[in-house]
Amino acid sequence: MEVISKKLFAKPQRPIRIMQFGEGNFLRAFIEWFIQDLNDKGAINANVALVQPMPFGRVSELAAQDGLYTLRLEGIDGGKRVKKSQVIDVIGDCINPFTEYEKFLKYGESEDLQIIISNTTEAGIAVDPADTDFKQCPKSYPGKLLALLKRRYDYFKGDITKGLAIIPCELIDDNGDELYRCLTELAQINKMDAAFIKWLQTANHFTSTLVDRIVPGYPKNEIEEIQKETGYIDNNVVKGEIFHLWVLKKEPFIQRVFPADSTGLNIIFADDIHPYKQRKVKILNGSHTAMVPVAYLCGIDTVGEAVTDPVIGKFVRDFVFEEVNPTINLPQDQMTAFANSVLERYQNPYIRHELMSIALNSTTKFRTRILPTLTDYVKITGELPQHVLFSFAALVAFHKGKRGAEDIKLADDPAYLAKWKQLWSDFNGDYTLLAKSALGWTAAWECDMNAIHPQITSTVAKYLEAIDTKGMKAAVKEFVNG
Description:
Layout: E1 16-21, H1 25-29, H2 31-40, E2 47-51, H3 59-64, E3 69-77, E4 80-88, E5 91-95, H4 101-106, E6 115-118, H5 141-155, E7 165-168, H6 175-189, H7 194-202, E8 205-206, E9 209-212, H8 223-230, E10 238-241, E11 245-249, H9 252-257, E12 267-270, H10 274-296, H11 303-308, H12 310-324, H13 332-346, H14 355-358, H15 362-381, H16 386-398, E13 402-403, E14 406-407, H17 414-425, H18 431-439, H19 442-445, H20 456-470, H21 472-481
Parallel strand pairs: 1-2, 1-6, 2-5, 3-10, 6-7, 7-8, 11-12
Antiparallel strand pairs: 3-4, 9-11, 13-14
């Protein structure tokens, strides 16, 4: 078999209107797929210049395949199992700025260039004060982008119409605002002139985003099957799930040059992306965190097994629909559709998601993913969300460190693990005292949860006693069946 190339697939010639910082699995299974769809349906006519953000990466491997690669989407779609492969042909150039710095900067002079997209990890959007020598490639992503924008400003003599649409996809809150702040600060550190800084801030158009798709990456265990099916060798195959969601904060210039929501994919331009972020964190991440100690102590090891178990599956569904959904300010039809899609994703037979991988740093995950549901639910209803409290009691029981005779490999901040150990070492059979101590751990929860509601301590104590004396299987079955 031959390696995928232009010899095997005709590659459309399109102007390079998009520069993308990052060439990893997520962007190639997410952003390039959207761009492919927009091109195929005539909404845009644009190819992508990939920029490798680190000295190591895979732009050379992609260039060796003429920028062509295969996207493999697998999962449940409309209740049916789906496996499909698609050749992505939108990569028009591959650049390693550490060895091709002038070529990279030259794109700043391009009349065609309109859009910057990035995903350089959560740590990528940060100021590096050492990025002061722009005669060589800056180390940080903001440094590289600032160098490109300065070249553009100089070349076009400060033309206000030559600003770019800047769309970060890094998984941090308000990523567009944060990138804007970093660029401004770095320009000031470098004592760039005020006219350029004003152009940077006013001619360019920033938006914040939320991205959602599980991307396992290179399918090494299935590559022979895929090659047999496609009839060619592809060293850059990337695998993703069927589900996709991209939420962008509305910005008129960006909506005009990049009409991403125009072809029917799950892309939303929203006035405020925070409710969508809340929805993802509370439902997707929150239900993960809620199910882990309950399911694992029942002898279950994966998300798929958990949600298909009649008892645990009902626990998770009731947690989401009865306690999480009412706390999020979005239309309930949207909430229901998203929640159902999450539960469908959990049953994806092509992804094995280990509960113990989700259990990593579970103390902080409870605070960030579930505690907001607890406080919001009490504020809205005046009642306690029972599934949340049962999951908290399960979290306390999980940190006893035993599943039957088996030691649980707890993985968390050492200080947190020491505190959990102390809570159980001090336990003298008084479940109310244990619940009060766990709920009152302000260093972990940043509040005393005992104060949230008059009955919270006694409720958690009741669930703790049931779990510890009857075992999780019996306790959760009794809880779910009411």
